[in-house]
Amino acid sequence: MGEAHGSLGSKIDTLHGILGGYRNLAIAFSGGVDSTLLLAVARQQLGEKVVGMTAQSPVYAKFEENQAVELAARMRTRHTLFAPDLLADDAFRANGPERCYHCKKCLFGTMRMAAEKMGFTTLAHGANVDDYHDFRPGLRAAAELGVVAPLSEAGLTKTDIRQLARAMGLPNWNRPAMACLATRLPYGTPIEPVVLSKIEAAEQIVRQMGITQCRVRYHHAIARIEVGIGEIEKLMLQQNRLRIVEALQMLGFRHVCLDLEGYVPGKMNRDLPV
Questions:
Q1: Burial class for 172, CB neighbours closer than 10 Å (0-12, 13-18, 19+)
Q2: Overall pTM > 0.90
C-alpha cells in the first residue's frame, strides 16, 4: 500500500511510472470511478495492451454491468465480460465475516484464467489507500493471488481519484460508491439467488424516485432503506413514499423501513465482534 501524503501531481506521476512498468494489464472493471480512472490511465500508458474485465454474476446488479459496458465503449478501450460462479462456493453463500475473501478469491481466480487465455499476465484492481482503513478481507485474497493495486501503490485516496477523474473528463467522476448485492445481507444470512434478485429489484424501484445513493438492506420480511442524507426528504415525498412501500410489499417485504441515519459505508460491519 502506498502513502496518502504527497502532492496530487507527484501521485499521478508515480501512477504513470507504475503502469508503464507492466508489459500488459488486465483490470477488474466494475464501472466505478476507481477502476475507471485506473483503466483510463493504463490505456494512456499501455494502449491495446490493457483490457477491462467485468464480472457477470447474480451478485452484481445488471445495471452496473450495462454501465461498465457502455463506459468502456465510450472510452474506446478493450473490454470483456467473464462469469465467476460465486454462488457455487459454499463458504461464500454461508455469508460469514470472511464472505468478501471467498468472493474475491473466486472472482480473481476466474478472471486470471480468462485473462491468460487472452495473453494477459498481470491482473489489477482499483483499490485505493482509503480502502485499507475498512474491514475488507477481499484485499487479502487479491494480494494472495498476486493482483496488483496501482492506485493504492501510488498513494491515491478516494478524494484524489475523484479529482483526477473530473480533470480527465470521466463521466462517472462523482458516481456514488457501489458494492455487490451480498453486502445488503446481515452476516450469517445465506446468500441465495432469489434474495439477491429481490434486493436488486427493490433498489431499482428506489432509484426510479430520483435517488442516487441507495441500499436496501435485507432483514427477511423487513426492507431497511438507506439513502444519502440529502435525499431523505425526496424519499419522504408522499407520492414517492407510497409508491415505494406498495412496490416493495409486492416484492414480498412485509415491512418497509427508512434508516434515519442515512447511508453509511460498511454499516453491516457493525455486527462484527470488536
A1: middle
A2: yes
